[in-house]
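[step 3/7] fold_predict: job queued, chain A
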Amino acid sequence: MKEFDRYSSAFAYGLVEGGYSPGDKIVLWMDQDNSAEVLVASMGAAKAGVTLVTFEEKDSQDAFHSVLKDSGARGVYFSPSTVATEAGDTRQTFLQKLMPDLEALYPGDSIKLSAYPNLKQIVQTGHKSMRGVIKFKDSLVYANPRFSTFSLP
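[step 4/7] structure written:
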């Protein structure tokens, strides 16, 4: 339980350091293979006051586009290697088709996508680097509560 609290707090601090405020939204598009990350993200978002938008339609690029557009989410957390179609397209493929501008970004660049003006951060659970996308493990901020101006519940 202590480790779970540590990781979920690191997720919450990561959100705060990333500029999220209570009431902001993030889309979770992760699957069973990332159940630990889903739990950490769920609790961490609650600690930071950020609302989760869950999305489970792994086989519809149009549905993913709609949820990003309609939710006004500032962030997306997704499992890149999950196969989404019989043709072998993955969630990463969907993301890259919807956001070709990401290919021009370097680490640390701000995301400014005309199709999704609210979107400021994309985080993936994979281990391979992707342009414009942060790795889940790199989005966590381990902070000592005694030295932070932000207090978690």
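[step 5/7] annotate
The first strand starts at residue 25 and ends at 29.
The beta strands are 25-29, 51-54, 75-78, 121-124, 134-135.
exit 0
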